[in-house]
Structure prediction request, 378 residues.
Amino acid sequence: MNDLPASLAADAPAPAPAPAPAPAPPRAAADGRSAARGAAWAAAAAAALALVALGLAWTTQQRVKLLESELVRRQHDSTDAANEARVLARQADSASRETAAKMALLEARVAETAMQRSQFEDLIQSLVRSRDENVLADIESAIRVAMQQAAITGSAEALVLALRQSDERLARYNQPRLERVRRAIAQDLDRVRNAAVTDIAVPTLRLDEIIRQVDELPLLATPAARAARGSAPPAPARAASAAAAASAAARSWRTALDDAWTRLGERLWGEVKGLVRVTAIEHPDAMLLAPDQASFLRENLKLRLLNARLAMLSRQFDTAQSDLRDAHNALERYFDRSSRRTTAALEGLRQVAAQARSVSVPRPDATLAAITAAAAGR
Prediction:
C-alpha cells in the first residue's frame, strides 16, 4: 500500500522548481506551513482514493473474470445442450418419420381392410341374392314345366303338385322378401284346385272297352241277328215249356202225348212266323252288307274310335268329337240297336262325348309375376 502512492507520486509530473522564497515574516511562514500541511492531506486523500479505486478495479476485474468464466461455462453448457437438443431433434425427426411411415402403412392397411370388408359384404349380399335368385329360378322352371305337362295331359295335378312343393320350399327357406311370392302361390293354388278339369283317363278307358267290343256287336245284315230277333220264343212260352217238362214225369202218358203235340205245334208256328218278318229300317243299304264289307266296317269303326282316343290324348277335342260322332252314326246305322251290347256301346260313346270337352287349366300368372318382381329386387 505504501508503494502505490510512491508510484503514483513518481508518475505525477515533477513540480517546477519554485524560486527561492524571500524571507518572509513569521506570519507568512505560518501560513506557508498550514498550506503545506493541507497539500499533504490532500495528497493523502488522493492516495487513499487511488487505493480505493484500485481495490474497486481489482474487485471488478475479479468479478468480470468470474463472469467470463461463468459465461464460458454456461456457453459450453448451452453448446452441449444445443448439441444434445440437436441430436434429440434428429432422433425425434427420425422417430416422427418412422411414425409417419408406420401411420401411412397402418392407414394403407386400414384402407385395404375396409376395402376387403366392403368386398366381403358385397360378396355376402351377392351370395344371398344369388341364392334367392336360384330358388326363384328353380321354382319358376318347375312351375313352367308343370304348366306344359298340364297343357299336354289336361290334368291339373302336376301344376297343383308343383305349386305345393314351391310353397313348402319357400316355407323352409323363410325369407321375408319372398312372402309376396308365397301369397301369390297360395292364390294360384286355390284357383287351380277349384278349376273343373277333364280327366282323360276315364273316357280313354271307356273307348278301349268299346273298341274291344266292336267285333262282338251284331250287325243288321247278320243272319244270326235276324234269327235272334225273329225266331226266339217268348219268355213266358219258354217258362211254360220248362214247367211242363218238369211235371211230365207225374202225368199220364196221354197227357204227356198231348203236351208233346202242343209243343210241336208251337215250334212249327214259331218257324212259320220266322219266315216272314216286317222291320222298319231307316237305311236299307245296311241290310245289303256283304261279309267282307262287314269286316271292313268293323275295322273302320275301330279306326274311328282309335283316332278319337288319340285326339283326346293330344287335347284336340274338336277332332275327337267329330270322330265320336261318326262312330255313333255308324253304330246306329249298321248295327242292331235292339242288342244290349250295341245299346251299351252307344251309351258309352255318349258319355265319352260328354266328357271330351276342352277345359283349360288356369295359368299361375300371379305367381310368375311375383317371382319376376322378387328377382328384379322390387
About this structure: The longest helix spans residues 26-153. Residues 1-24, 223-246 have pLDDT under 50 and may be disordered. Residues 227-280 form one domain.
